[in-house]
Amino acid sequence: MAPPKQEFQESLKHMRQGGSARQGGSASDRKSRVRFALSEAHLRRARKHMAEARCVALFRDERKGRLLVRYRACLGDDFTVVSGVLGLRPCEGSGDDLSKVTKVILTDFCTPHQGLLRNCALPDQENVDPASLEIEIRKKVTMVVSDAAAAELVSGDILRGRRAYACSGQLQADFPNIRIVGRDIAHASTRLLKRPLCHHETLKSLTSEFVTASDSFCQKVFHSNVFKGWWAEALLHKEDEEFTTGSSISAAKHRFSSYALPLGRLCRNSVAMVAVCQRIDAMRGENALWAGKLLRNLTGRKMLLLSVCADAAHTSLDFTRFADEESSDIAQLNQEADKFCRTIRTLFVDGRVTELPTFTKDMIDTLQRGDLTVMLDRCPREIRITQEDKVYALKVMQEWAVAAEASVESEFPSWHLLSCFSVFNLQSRRDSRQQDSSTVRACLRKLAKAFNVCPEALQKQYVGLLPVAEALHKQGSMVNRAAWTEAIRRTVSRQKVRERHAPKELSEVLCGYFTWSASTSGVEQLFSKIKRSPVELASASVDTDRHLAIVMGDDAQGMKSDEDTLITEAQKLYVGLLRSGKARASAKTRRLDAGSKRKLRPLPGKKKTEAQWHRRRRAAVARATRDDAELVTPPRRAPVELPQSLQKETDRQRTQAGKRKAEAFLDGYLLDEEITDSVRQVARDQLRGNNASDAKRRKAWTTYEETRIMANEMQTRQWALRDLPTNVWLDKTEPGLHPAWQAMLRQECRASVSFCTDLRQGQLFVVKDFGSVHRKVRLMAALRGGTILSGSVLEGRSGAKVTYNSGLMLPVAVFTSNDFKTQEPGMTMILRDACSHGWQAVAVEGLRGRGRRPSLHLKASSERVQGGSGRPRSDKDVPNDAQREMVNDINNLSSSWRRRLGLHPAPSDEGMIRLVSDCAGYGSDLIALRLLGLQKRVQVVMISEVAKDKRILHSSVATACGWSDGHGESVSDIMTRNDLTAPRADLYVAGYPCPSFSRLGKRQGARDQRGFVTLKGLKYIAASRPRALILEQVSELQQAKHKRVWEFIQKILTRLNYAFVWKVLSPKHFAVPQSRPRTYVVAVARESLRTRELTLPAERPHCSDLHHFLDKTVVGSEKLDLPVYEEKLGSQMWERGWVLDVGSSPSFQHPLKNLCPCLTKTRLQQGGYYVTRLRRRLLVEEAGRLQSVPQQVLKQMVQAANDANLRQRAVDAALGGRDERRRLDVSPWRCIGWVGNDLDNAAEERLLAASAMW
User: Fold this and answer.
1) CB within 8 A of 1184, min separation 6: which ones?
2) Residue 876 pLDDT more than 70?
3) Which positions are catalytic?
4) Nearest to 17 by CA among 593, 547, 419, 696
5) How many whole angstroms from its chain centre is CA 71?
6) Which portions of the chain have biased composition (kind: Basic and acidic residues) (predicted)?
């Protein structure tokens, strides 16, 4: 018996939202069967539609290794159009793989009950033969649409038999009736704005300064919660009471309007933008130099250019909105493209943009009223515009308009087959802009050629039915497709009219008109919906993804009758799935991404929304454009001279238009009068290019297959010795091996092998040890495209083979210093020869002045030139000069401390303790001092912490621990601090950034900016010599990789006359079950030491049970797929409370018995720790316990994070950023004598036990 209808409705609702089988409770076989039955019911209906279809179009897109295919089909004589998902499959992304996966998806679609669940029987079979249905669908497919990716275009040609598969090298028409491979017009419409914009230097720099660059106003505000609040507050104080505006200036909710939304809102709120920048500049100072720079460079001309860019972006967005619909009417494509061109001419060429209610008009009014004033250095500066600024702005946009029209001609050519469907556009005829008769006849002839019908009969039927369709469109207010459908129905239903105007040919073309679309928005929207769905975060299988995509992509969502029919069919399928015939009892046209956008609500006190303002603007621009179009004699416009970069892009677009016309010629639907010699020549060039590309693909595939076969058959030696060059150079350091190598090469190559002693003549370089190849050999192999081969390969042992592409064919800039030329005359001769073959020899100034880093930069071992290096430097690398300067400063300060500072006075038992904390984190040192009872004697004189979130949490911890007056000087960036004038400390505590030294990081040490902070902290120690200090770093600091840094720290502490000890300790040594090994350094000035030696606290013999730190009352339902841990732990993984690091790579996944892995900032912020028995992630309260943070302090931190509106999981990230050091803080107090003799061993044990309680 099937479950009740309500359960199917609930599952259908969850599946349409992308929910997994675990949604609403735990997963079960019953739920899985219900979901499988629902997807199969969808597929049965879809297969029925495809069997009845007359014409089918496929829409596909590949994203992140998955190919999604949708279909759109026209059914029967009533021209009903249906659409849905064909399937979803993994895909590698090459043209061949896309073609193969497309066929696999079609086969799966035609085969019932794919991915049948366990313990299920096959239901009643459909009366459809899968093989016959697949053959029929392949014949009915007349169009494939994808974006303009090269691999997808190649795949389209492969499917229709125009290009060969790489694996076979033969043509195979899998879909023989494909008329056209379409490109997504929504993507194409965005290129109308962005391509000209990015190639105009003025507009590119402007949009970069305000919108796109990392230091632009939009990006800075978007990535800062504080700046967002200031921006929203500034919008509330606008004086304009008529229209409101949104506060978001991020990349827009609409997926194509990333320029339009922020540009428009900046222009309409320019006064608020200036106010926010001034507030940032005043309150942040040197930490926000970008705001002051923007204000200083702000001019009226810039603001006017910004506003005309906003108008251009929104004009392009209007066109994109039309194109971004799978059901968009392709008959209106020409009309919309023409409307776009006429609009930009009216606005920018005729200059109406300054008169109509546009962004530009608003900006001009704002600047002329004097509302925009910038306060710099306490002096107001009013931003004004002149007539010259208006003329310049219009001139720039006229240049953009010329390039945009060239892009329209390239992306939406008037002769294209899709444009021919404009003959069915009744709206253009109603607006008195119909095409002339010759254009209509030409379009009908093209359509007749494409659909293999008689052109004369098609034209006769079109002329006969056109008046009927026009009357229906005008009187019945029908859209184009509905009017033509009704006209055909009326013709077929009347016998006399049918005999006189039998619409056989016209019906064939109309099927294509109703089915075809030039937009993949349905696929894009479904991908976006899947990305936001809960199942994307779960460990779902490919079949689960496929079934979900089929249901989520259903175009009949919301139709009650269709839903009832589907559920009834699903219930029948459910009964058929059960072997016993009864279910087991369970254990406890709309947009496809609809519902994801939030509606904009008016702000308090406002009457109209931003959308209403945009509608008013569009209506005014449309009226002006219509008035200009109705002029009998259009105005003559002078030609515009374009900048060089924009002219180059315009010429490229016109060349691209010629290539598109050549593709149309190859498709076979161009008319004879449109075919010219230039079109034929471009088509021939394109065919030659395709042949060369196919040969390259074939060669690459053949090489891959041969290598794979040899690897499977353990024939790696045969592969390594295949196709070796004949000019051989042998390693001169091993002359004794030359005879044996020569004999083996003659035997293996079976050709005339010549051996040379001159390195410049070699093509094959045989060496003994591949790991120590001389750089001359490597360079020569790279120059000549040679091969380096290990001699051990010839002897039948393991080795290496590397083949280079010829470096002489690459554009490389080479710099050689005079010292290098003196030390390496042979290398200099080789480089001089390379430069004569096309390389470029440059000076140091030339390297600095080039726009990008050169591909190769040779240098001697002791020199470094700013222009580049052999290894491209990262943005986080610290220059060697800065490192040397820092080391010299530390050495000088540590050598002169006696003269500058003198000795510390004797410590007092009642005096105040001045505390300085670098990289303070959330304030773990304050917690330790509070547990020691020293909060009244410690004065926090300075902290440094670069993360704003942690500074806020540090203040909350200080308040919770008894420092009501906060702390002293706060430094946001330790690197900007003047250590010579910084406050002097009695106790210095620092936990420097560890990724530069950790084995999980890049291990760049002090060469990395984060590792360089360690040297900066050491400079403060040398400059002020605190009485006592505690330093923390990862245990890898003592390894050989970082030996120089570790030894340098010890040398400086010794020179500063410190008594110091160090040890690698972990919380597990002090009864807290966490594995967090860290190197701790405790140092005390010798004149303040009251004990003979400095010691660290003794380790506890036993560790607490991990279960005591977990909240066992909170149980989740998330069961992860963890193959690495399951292999190591077996079934006990789910029976015991393991805490596992599930965010790390498999090589670092090691379970720890009764221990939590090292809690890190990144993993805690991502929720990457999983408690197996409780089926959930680690809670922030549990992370606080494992970091020994008292419960009341943790609550204060969470409250502070909520009050400051910090990002999600900010407290978790702070807890993982720095370890608790409270147990180590006991040792310096005993040694210095501030605590006195009252703290005996028993008291110390009680203190350690108390610190682990909460």
Assistant:
1) 1191, 1194, 1215, 1254
2) no
3) 994
4) 593
5) 28
6) 648-659, 872-882
